[in-house]
Amino acid sequence: MFLKDDLSRFPRVRMGHLPTPLEQMPNLSKEVGLEIWVKRDDCTGVGLGGNKVRQLEFYLGKARAQGATQILITGAVQSNFVRTAAAMAAKLGMGCHIQLEDRVSGKGVLYRENGNVLLDRLFGATLHTYSEGEDEAGADAQLRLLADDLSAEGEVPFIVPLSADQPPTGSLGYVDAALELIGQGESFDEIFLASGSAITHCGVLYGLRAAGDQTPVTGICVRRDAKLQTARVTKRLQDLADLMGQANPVKPDDIRLDDTAFAPGYGQLSEPLLQALRMTARTEGLVLDPVYTGKVMAGLLAQAPRLSGKRVLFWHTGGQPAVFAYGDLLADALS
Known about the structure:
Layout: H1 2-7, E1 22-24, H2 26-32, E2 35-40, H3 52-65, E3 70-76, H4 80-91, E4 95-101, H5 109-113, H6 116-122, E5 126-130, H7 136-152, E6 157-160, H8 171-183, E7 190-195, H9 199-210, E8 217-221, H10 226-244, E9 256-258, H11 271-284, H12 293-302, H13 304-307, E10 311-316, H14 322-325, H15 327-334
Parallel strand pairs: 2-10, 3-4, 3-6, 4-5, 7-8, 7-10, 8-9
Antiparallel strand pairs: 1-2
């Protein structure tokens, strides 16, 4: 397939346990009256898995090609991205500097010390802080200052960027994932996934359309409302087309965003979210996280009447370590 040849032009370190399983969810399906399947990207294998493994294969491939000795990355306190970067950097013999942004208000010691933060430290990362949670350009600028300091010490730093003014290199991993899904031979009436940075969302949507697959892809908003996210997805899709050196195969009406499960905001709990966590765990023994996949499932379940009798795919992007960071809140809610 021509897309495979296009992807092979980009440096990559192959670490993920791929392809990830595609499984039916019969008990949950019976509960809600539609046929739900799950794409198990929580099973990508490195550093407790998740979608970021696919993305970082390309970022760290580029880093290794440049002779990097230190990886620099920024994200929320309970970021899955930075946790996975620390694990993958360790496997490559690189150091890792993580900048934790204060994006979620009202959280205590458990949130700041457990879950992904505990794993960051376990993987040997050096932690830094950035007080602003909604300043992507500022967070990247702070990383560049840190990179300058490391360069002065003789290191070769590589920044994994956050802001949308940088090429969406990580989306290449999800262009490849879309081809993987097609190769698994199952068809669906609709695909549901998280839309935050938009890297996963754009990669899947772009890959499907470039391969001629017209399956609808609904992004469930986890970071910003549908209007703002639509603008971000639109821009990142064009950025991805430019990176690939191709015409953008995605039409404006292919971009579907739903923010009904977003409230009360990024990383905050709600009753629909808690219900999604409970139902999925108690019918399928499958753990979702309270920031991303729980909200995706909440959004999917809210649309169950519209989807009645249809065959849908829930893309599980991982993130389960965050459950432990929310342990106090979840214990109260589930008791």
